[in-house]
């Protein structure tokens, strides 16, 4: 749900940049009806503001959260908070990150395989 001052984080393994973009693409009908992205459907997210979504695909895999989140908005605030939240180690094969700002994900689905890709919800933190 949209909630000012919060950011929700997903990480995973995605085949290509194009595939990540396809998973995150929202669309509208000619009448203006909203169709959520594949990502939103899999995590049962009704709607989020795409203007405050950040995502990145990396050519190499990593499990270093600091490295994965470097360069994102508010990284100096969110990196230590997410590291504290995610105290267990991450899988070694992460090459994609999705952040939804001003969004507090409360869904029950933690991990979603999507064709030959997967994304895992790590948590939500306050950033402001």
UniProtKB/TrEMBL annotation:
It comes from Paenibacillus glacialis. This is Immunity protein 22. InterPro entries: Imm22.
């Amino acid at each position: 749900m949209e909630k000012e001052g919060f950011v929700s984080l997903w990480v995973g393994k995605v085949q290509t940049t194009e595939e990540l973009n396809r998973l995150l693409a929202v669309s509208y009908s000619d009448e203006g009806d909203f169709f959520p992205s594949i990502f939103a459907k899999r995590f049962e997210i009704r709607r989020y503001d795409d203007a405050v979504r950040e995502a990145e695909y990396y050519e190499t895999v990593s499990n270093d959260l600091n490295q994965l989140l470097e360069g994102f908005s508010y990284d100096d605030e969110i990196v230590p908070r997410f590291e504290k939240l995610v105290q267990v180690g991450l899988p070694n094969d992460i090459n994609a990150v999705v952040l939804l700002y001003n969004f507090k994900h409360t869904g029950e689905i933690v991990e979603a395989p999507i064709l030959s890709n997967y994304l895992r919800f790590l948590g939500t933190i306050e950033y402001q």
